[in-house]
Amino acid sequence: NGAGTVQTDLITLTRFILQEQQKVGPKATGELTLLLNALQFAFKFIAHTIRRAELVNLIGLAGVQNATGDDQKKLDVIGDEIFINAMKASGNVKLLVSEEQEDLIVFESSNGNYAVVCDPIDGSSNLDAGVSVGTIFGVYRLLPGSSGTIKDVLRSGTEMVSAGYTMYGASAHLMLTTGHGVNGFTLDTHLGEFILTYPDLRIPHSRAIYSVNEGNSFYWSDEIKAYLASLKEPQSNGKPYSARYIGSMVADVHRTLLYGGIFGYPGDSKSKNGKLRVLYECFPMAFLLEQAGGLAVNDRGEQISHIVPKQIHERSGIWLGSKGEIEKLLTFIKP
Ligand code: AHM
Ligand code: MG
């Protein structure tokens, strides 16, 4: 501890990832460390850009559509560019999948051994109202002997070596896993550093909070309807569950990780596979949740990280959260 209330021995993200690298020992190449460093630069740049967006009049439609036909905001375009440039410059990334790009991006001049999948600004429909949005990312190591093809990213979530998100809220929070638990960092804007604020984060085993867009309930399966109805009945403490839905996956997952509960975006009769994308929304969040002691499943109750996507923009219904809450859901949808 430092003098008075000033903490003088801060664990920055850079210090943390160097320590993690040292734990791996002499066989660590340092490549992932450099890649995580490039990622943190992209997060800081996006955080900074979002903060001043209103002032510099970036808010509003850019007049173009992304790969899947959504209206793209100016900030979506800028976030995407920031991310692509940071990954390209890192020298460690060979392939990039972005929600905003229809095709896989191959960095021809890179000799990097990694593929990164990302949603640069998720939840952007919330941006104009100043609601939290975030960047979601996952990292694969290229398959042995590969020089970078689509096969390197059409792999199960269990093969990711790192994943996480940054939420741009009251502060920017980065939640990170490299497969050894989850650690959370908060951006100190004055220092320009992410500081370790949630070491070895564990999700509570259960919590009576559900987070789902109930506007779609007409289209849900009978099992999902029955599950949600059961949450609205008084529970053993005499109270029903609380509903919390921000409509920004990163913010809804962030609350779920910290408080516990369940978040879902199921498939329904209108959209068979729901809305969220397997590679860069479901997998990274599933990896984080599992590493924090929670669970993530699809609509059939199968572990979502075991899916092998056939296309880079594939979607899947998803349920994630506290172990106790997912187990309760599974009694309704039985895998
Ligand atoms: P986006 O990638 O186009 O921003 O859409 C993803 C977002 C998620 O952040 C959020 O969980 C979901 O869409 C909300 O969808 P809905 O408005 O249908 O509830
Ligand atoms: Mg998204």
From TrEMBL:
It catalyses: beta-D-fructose 1,6-bisphosphate + H2O = beta-D-fructose 6-phosphate + phosphate. Homotetramer. Residues 11-198 form the Fructose-1-6-bisphosphatase class I N-terminal domain. This is Fructose-1,6-bisphosphatase. Belongs to the FBPase class 1 family. Gene3D superfamilies: 3.40.190.80, Fructose-1,6-Bisphosphatase, subunit A, domain 1 (3.30.540.10). Keywords: Carbohydrate metabolism, Hydrolase, Magnesium, Metal-binding. Pathway: Carbohydrate biosynthesis. Its cofactor is Mg(2+). The keyword Transport does not apply. One of its GO terms (molecular function) is metal ion binding. HAMAP family: FBPase_class1 (MF_01855). It comes from Kuraishia capsulata CBS 1993.
